Amino acid sequence: QVSTSSRTADTVEPSPPTNSRINSSCSRLCLDANPGFLSQFNFNLYPCAPDVSRLSLREETLLEQMAEKQIAAIAAQPALLKALRAKRRKLGPVQIAALDQRWRDEFASGEYDLIRKLINAKPSGHLRRIREASNGLFTELILMDAIGMNVGISDVTSDMWQGDEDKFLQTLGAPEPRTVHISGIEYDESTRSFQSQISVIVQDPKTGRGLGVLTVGVDVARALAPETGATTRNSGPVPKAGTAGDDALRDP
After folding, report:
1. What b/e string do you get for 149-163 counting C-beta neighbours within 10 Å, with b at 16 or more?
2. pLDDT band at 28; cut points 50, 70, 90
3. Cα dihedral angle (46, 47, 51, 55), rounded to 10 degrees?
4. 3-state secondary structure of 142
5. Cα–Cα distance between 213 and 148 in angstroms, integer?
6. Distance between CA 213 and CA 201 in Å, rounded?
7. What is the pLDDT of residues 199-231, one digit of tens each?
8. CA 190, CA 124: separation in Å to the nearest integer?
9. Residue 134 half-sphere exposure, CB side, CA atoms within 13 Å?
C-alpha cells in the first residue's frame, strides 16, 4: 500500500496579526526599493541559520500541492520514463560503493570523467531545460533509478548514490513506499536561497511499479510567495516529451 505523503513537521502556523497586510505592503515596498536586499540577507544569514528548518503545516500543504500537480507531471514525462527503463541496473553493494566513491573523488578533485558522462547525457539535459524554464522556482532536479543511483542530474551532485538519503529512503526505499517526501528548509549556498527538496516516486503508468525517484529542489521563497502560491504559479514551459531523453542513457 502506498501512502500519499511523508510529513516532516506537524507544527501549526500561528494566526497572522490584524495588521499583517499593512506589514506585507511595507515589506514589498522595501524590497522593490532595494532589489538586492533579500539575496544579500539570505547570504549573510547562512552562518546563523540551522542546518534544517521545519516547515509549517501551511507551507508543507502548499508544497504537497505542488508535488501532486507540477512535479508529478514532470515525473510522468515519457523522456524520464524511458531513461529509467533503460537503466534497470543490477548492482551489488560493493559495485555501488565503488561507483559512488569514484564519483565523490571526482567531485572533490574537479577532474570529471564519470560525472561528465552523466551531466552530458540526454536525461540530464532534459532536466536542465526544466530547471531553466522554471524561472528560478526549481533549483535542481535529480532522477535516480530503483536502487538510488543517479540517472539524470540538472547540476553536479556531490555523490552518485542517493540510496542512503531521505529523498530515497522515505519514498521508494521505505518499507512501505510513499509517493511523496518533502524535506525541511535548507540554505543552498550555491544559489543563495532557502530550498526544500520534493521527492516523488516515478511510476510505470502501465504496471504502477516504481521505476525510480525524481527529486526537485524548490526555492521556498518563490514557491510560497503570496502573490503566486504553489498551486497557481506559472513556472514557464516544461520541455515536452521528445525534446530530450529519447535515447537510452549509456552506462558510464
Report:
1. bbbbbbbbbeebbbb
2. low
3. -40
4. strand
5. 8
6. 4
7. 999 999 999 999 999 999 999 988 887 644 444
8. 19
9. 24
Residue 81's nearest CA partner among 250, 212, 198, 181 is 212
C-alpha cell at 98: 565503488
Comparing CA positions, the residue from 211, 180, 195 lying closest to residue 140 is 195
Assign 123 to helix, strand or coil.
Answer: helix
| pLDDT tens for each residue of 86-101 | 987 789 999 999 999 9
Comparing C-alpha atoms, which of 217, 209, 122, 239 is closest to residue 162? 217
The residue type at 242 = G
Block residue for cell numbers 530550498: 195
User: What is residue 106's DSSP assignment?
Assistant: H
Q: What per-residue confidence (pLDDT) applies to 141?
A: 97
Alpha-carbon span 132 to 229, nearest angstrom: 19
> In residues, how long is the chain?
252
Q: Which residues, 6+ apart, have CB-to-CB distance to 142 below 8 Å?
A: 127, 150, 152, 153, 154, 157, 162, 167, 214, 215
